[in-house]
Amino acid sequence: MTGTMSDAAGTKPVLAIVVIGRNEGERLKVCLQSLRVAAPRALVVYVDSGSTDGSVALATALGCELVALDMAQPFTAARARNAGFQRAAALHPGLRYVQFMDGDCEIVAGWLDTARGYLDLHADAAVVCGRRRERFPQNSLYNQFCDIEWNTRIGQTSSCGGDAMVRLDTLRQVGGYREDLIAGEEPEMCVRIRAKGWQIWRLDHEMTLHDAAILKFSQWWKRSKRSGYAFAAGHALHGAAPEYHWAQQVRSVWLWGLLLPASVLLGALAWTPWCLLGALVYPLQAWRIRAKLPASTPQRGWYALFLVLGKFPEVLGQLKFQIDKLVGSRSGLIEYKK
Prior knowledge:
The protein is α/β, with parallel strands linked by helices. The protein folds into two domains: 5-213, Spore Coat Polysaccharide Biosynthesis Protein SpsA, Chain A; 238-327, no CATH class.
C-alpha cells in the first residue's frame, strides 16, 4: 500500500493509517485487506509488538510500512501508536491526519472519506470516531456486551477509543499517547486534547468491525480487571478539578466492588447473619440498570447483570494499580486474548 491519500490536486499527502497488532493472525489479514480495498493508495504503517504468528511477513507482503517495536522495552498500545504516527510523519512531513486502528478491526467502506471530510470542514475538531461494531456478537454474551459498550452517544463527546482519526498537529501538540499507561490511553490523551481547546466528535457513520473473540468468562474477567486498572490510572492523572476524569467510575467500583460487600460480610460476622440480606442490593441494582437501558438493547438483562458483576474484577484492577503505585512497580499488560 504505497503512497497516501492526497488532496484534490493529488500532490499533498494528507492521511496515513496506523495499525497496531500482536499475533492477530487471520484478523490482521482481514484488517489490512479491508484497507487495501478502502484506500488502495494509502500509506499503512503496521506496528508489530513481538508477533510470532507470521504477522510481520503478512504485513510486509501486503505492502505495509513495518515498525517492529523493541520488545526489550515495556510494551503498551500507546507506545505502538506513537511509533506508528511518528514513522508516518517522518516518511511524509505533509501529513495532516492519522487514522488509528487495532489489528483485529476491519475498516468500513466510506469511513475514511467521511472522517477526513469532517476534519477538513471543522477546524476546531481534532478527533473523529464512528460506530465500532462487534463482528461476531452471536458468538458469546461477552462479544455482545462489547457491541453495546461501543454504541456511544453521537455528537461532541469527551473521548474516543482505539479506532479514530486524529489531526497530526494535535498529536504533536499534546505529545501523543502516554506510553506508561497499559490501558485507557485514548481517553487520557483526549483529556489533554480538550484542555488545548480542541473538540472530539462521534459521527453517525459506521467505522470499523471488531473481532473481540471473548468466548470465556475468564477472558471477560481479565478485560474487566484491565478496565478497573485503567480507571484508577486515568483518575490518578486527571481525577481532580476541572476534569474529574473517571472520578465517578472509580467511586462506583470502590463502592460496589469492595465497600458494600465488606460491610455486608462484617455485619454478618459481628452482628447478625441477617446482614447477608444486604447482598440483595446487587440484583436490585442490576434490575434498576436494566430498566434504564433502551428496550432495543440486545440481552439487556444479562448486560445489566454483568455491569454489576464487573465491579468485582474492576476493583481488583484498581487495587493492583494502588499496589503498583505504592511499591513503585510498573504493571505489565493485562491480556485477555489468550
